[in-house]
Design a protein that fits this description.
By secondary structure, this protein is mostly helical. The protein folds into 2 domains: about 55 residues, no CATH class; about 140 residues, no CATH class. The protein is about 65% helix and about 10% strand. The chain has 6 helices and 3 strands, in the order H-H-H-E-H-E-E-H-H. Strands 1-3-2 form a 3-stranded antiparallel beta sheet, covered by helices on one side. Helix 1 packs across helix 2, helix 4 crosses helix 5 and helix 5 packs antiparallel against helix 6. It is globular, with a radius of gyration of 20 Å. The N and C termini lie far apart (about 70 Å).
């Protein structure tokens, strides 16, 4: 391989990694909750270090981004964070509240490392839930959830996690993944309708 061809191949590799680098920098700035020169520069250095030094499984990007779905994802994230923050604040000052928490396993619909990571991050950002472990081989998320006293509470947490995964897939996932999560959503709704019909 010639020197020119090697350079082209290297630049193609960098270009393919660029969305991941940008996402890591954005995540770092988001965690610090402030946009400064220091946070941006350290985010860039850490993103380069993580992708170059630490072993990571190959991240397969779909090359697809739906702006409308991306906007809905961002708005829903802000809504969830706001509502959950208020709920946790109320519980913290309520003298009658007795903690009842759970470790819940949630089976994700996709096996994409990128979707799994983004879903875990999105869940952990919302107060009251935090991912404690990930089974990458089986696509399982284990999360600690606040205020899960009944089976209905646990089912609600699972629905919220799957809803977050669905919104992420519809925003950046492949066409096949989008079709899969839509079909799974229809099946969940049909199952809930049957359950309600049987209980009435």
């Amino acid at each position: 391989m010639t020197h020119a061809a090697t350079d082209v191949s290297r630049w193609r590799s960098v270009w393919r990694q660029l969305p991941l680098l940008v996402a890591l920098v954005f995540l770092w700035v988001f965690l610090w909750d402030q946009v400064t020169v220091l946070t941006v520069v350290t985010g860039i250095l850490l993103a380069i270090g993580v992708t170059r030094v630490l072993y990571l499984p190959p991240v397969l990007l779909s090359g697809r981004f739906n702006p409308w779905r991306g906007l809905l994802l961002g708005l829903r994230m802000m809504f969830d964070v706001t509502v959950a923050s208020l709920q946790v604040a109320v519980l913290a000052i309520d003298p009658r509240w007795k903690p009842m928490n759970s470790i819940i396993a949630v089976q994700l619909l996709t096996r994409s490392d990128l979707v799994t990571t983004l879903t875990a991050e999105a869940i952990s950002v919302v107060p009251g839930t935090v991912v404690v472990d990930i089974d990458r081989e089986r696509g399982l998320l284990y999360l600690h959830a606040l205020g899960t006293r009944t089976r209905a509470d646990i089912d609600r947490v699972r629905r919220d996690v799957l809803g977050t995964e669905e919104r992420i897939v519809l925003a950046i996932g492949t066409h096949a993944q989008a079709v899969s999560v839509r079909e799974a959503r229809r099946e969940r709704r049909a199952l809930r309708s049957q359950t309600k019909g049987a209980g009435s």
